[in-house]
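Notes continue from the previous slide.

Worked example: a multi-chain complex. Inputs as given:
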Amino acid sequence: MMQKFCLPIRVYVEDTDAGGIVYYANYLKYIERARTELIRTFGFDKPALFGSLQFVVHSVSIKYLQSAVLDDEIIATAEIIRVTKTSFMVAQSVLRNNELLIDAEVKVVCISHDKKTPCAIPINMLKKLQGGIVNIKRASS
Amino acid sequence: MMQKFCLPIRVYVEDTDAGGIVYYANYLKYIERARTELIRTFGFDKPALFGSLQFVVHSVSIKYLQSAVLDDEIIATAEIIRVTKTSFMVAQSVLRNNELLIDAEVKVVCISHDKKTPCAIPINMLKKLQGGIVNIKRASS
Amino acid sequence: MMQKFCLPIRVYVEDTDAGGIVYYANYLKYIERARTELIRTFGFDKPALFGSLQFVVHSVSIKYLQSAVLDDEIIATAEIIRVTKTSFMVAQSVLRNNELLIDAEVKVVCISHDKKTPCAIPINMLKKLQGGIVNIKRASS
Amino acid sequence: MMQKFCLPIRVYVEDTDAGGIVYYANYLKYIERARTELIRTFGFDKPALFGSLQFVVHSVSIKYLQSAVLDDEIIATAEIIRVTKTSFMVAQSVLRNNELLIDAEVKVVCISHDKKTPCAIPINMLKKLQGGIVNIKRASS
């Protein structure tokens, strides 16, 4: 079964704002780090760029439940929940201990570097992405 | 009639990433600038902080349609579309000329600075927020 | 005479940190915006990239005297104080009203995009950069 | 002997710019992470805030020698080289393998949270900071 990928992160001053909490846009940095490291576990060393292809974020839906603060040790998670020929959907969260801070879904699409139009995800990567889904389904059945 | 609030923004190197485009989290900075300036037009000089109250983002839904690039002149827009006693919803976008780059909805809630629980929006601000809605309805009827 | 170039900037939540002040790295963003706009006044529309050349920062020396805070209206300045065939030095500051917040010197070098080695600054730009210096000298004599 | 403190860091998309390299201001984030973790090794859990005191950066001098790029594994270092009653100086660098990318000196001052004037560093922290210096001197003699 594919595990939910977990990346430990420390909150530094750079991440916070004058409200004394992590700035709302910075959670998008945290969850991208988790996506990147998840894809690195698939054996892709340069996750963001594949020759003539590029993976870009198509949409994000994020709920802010609790705030992380300076010096917190948090966990950013990434779990692939849907895969198409040209895109995949990632369920993501940020946790402090077992408390859910934010909850998000991110759709990533594969586009050509030149024309910026949707492209087929390379087959070796597609298999890795689909592998996660199939196993999750089996595990939950 | 309340106009859709428009804030001109220049894209600088700080905003871009190695993909040659504006980094996806940075659009959340752009649209917050537009929300802040919209609220400033209501006569609130320190939009983020009102004594014991604080306005925090509850949720964001954002679609990335086209990418802004270095040196672009873009417009971030903000339009209040729903108001409750403790929250308001803002429709937002980023445009380059007349091309829609991103499209978003942001829910902002009023919380107490101490207890971090939802609080009634101060009445003078609530009226300003509601004024926008009423006028939009009239304008579109 | 070449004026000290001045760029008005508003401080937003994105710029601040949990100390309630502008995060120290963000002043480097402010002063780069001023350098960029100064070079744009020379008639260069894409200041950071010139075909096969690239302008990169070689060194920064910065003193933090006072802190900018949320919602401040500040001014970032840029003034070219020395030019060589491959580099130029910019005196920079950030001011709030007439109060000096930071004071910096930034050395920018022209490198080839491919080899990352120092390159001659294109002659049309070199003249513009030198023009500023000459005029300043005249003005102060 | 006090070791030069070393913090491993991964370069993510958030750190890069359209030039394909790490944005110059972001090295200030990396070296602050190293300073923070160094002070945490002294037993201070909330390095940035000590009740009524605050540590702020007084000045930075930084040289950019080589650029880090996306997905690099780099090391940020911090070494205390001078301590006074109200301030300390940190020699810092960022390395990729054994290659020096940036070299910096950062002066940090202790100020009162209220009055923003220089304050004596708390004695328990001062001893830790001085401990590093003394030992370095011994080691190099």
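Summary box: Chain C has one domain: 5-140. Chain C touches chain D through 23 residues (CB under 8 Å).
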